[in-house]
Amino acid sequence: MAERVEVMAKKDYEKMTEELITPIIDAHHFELVDVEWVKEGSNWYLRVYIDKEGGITVDDCEVINREFGDVLDEKDYISENYIFEVSSPGLDRPLKKEKDFARSIGKDVEVRLYRPIDKKKEFVGVLDSYDKNSVTIVLDSGEKMTFEKSAIALIRLAFFY
């Protein structure tokens, strides 16, 4: 039963954080990429990922951290001890929101599945289309493959080194 409460708190903390931080991020003309409440080792982390055209700097993260830190102190809606972090999502960030998919049409993506298809769990191709439930990529061979979003463990831009 305790685990269910923890999961509900995670969703609630993320939602409340998103609602409270969005006006601050919008005022600085940044984009809110994601909010996550995660436990790593013995510590809880409240992480906010922000971005802007040309990329986020450490100074940008510090501004949001300072301004939202005041809101966190005032609202005090998280009962656990935690570490608050503001970060850039990085180049290899997952595609999660509709705008992530829209901006990635025509780009190379890496798709990792929970369960293999023909003994393969990883596919790389050009993002062709997406909707609420599925993602379609075009493989190097020209073959189109459509994946249900519920079957995708991770989808992100592919980078070749």
How does this model look, in words?
With 161 residues, this protein is of the alpha+beta class. The chain has 2 domains: 2-87, 2-Layer Sandwich (GMP Synthetase, Chain A, domain 3); 98-157, Ribosome maturation factor RimP, C-terminal domain (SH3 type barrels, Roll). It contains 3 helices and 8 strands. The protein has helices at residues 2-27, 58-75, 98-104, and strands at residues 31-40, 43-51, 83-87, 108-117, 120-130, 134-138, 144-148, 152-157. The strands form 2 sheets. The chain has a 5-stranded antiparallel beta sheet. The chain has a 3-stranded mixed beta sheet with strand order 1-2-3. Helix 2 links the parallel strand 2 (43-51) and strand 3 (83-87). Helix 1 packs across helix 2 (58-75). The longest helix has 26 residues, at 2-27. It is elongated and about 55 Å long.
Layout of secondary structure:
Elements: H1 2-27, E1 31-40, E2 43-51, H2 58-75, E3 83-87, H3 98-104, E4 108-117, E5 120-130, E6 134-138, E7 144-148, E8 152-157
Parallel strand pairs: 2-3
Antiparallel strand pairs: 1-2, 4-5, 4-8, 5-6, 6-7
Summarize the entry for a quick read.
Helix content is 32%, strand content 38%.
Structural key phrases:
161 residues, alpha+beta, GMP Synthetase, Chain A, domain 3, SH3 type barrels, 2 domains, three-stranded mixed β-sheet, 3 helices, elongated, disordered N terminus, ribosome biogenesis
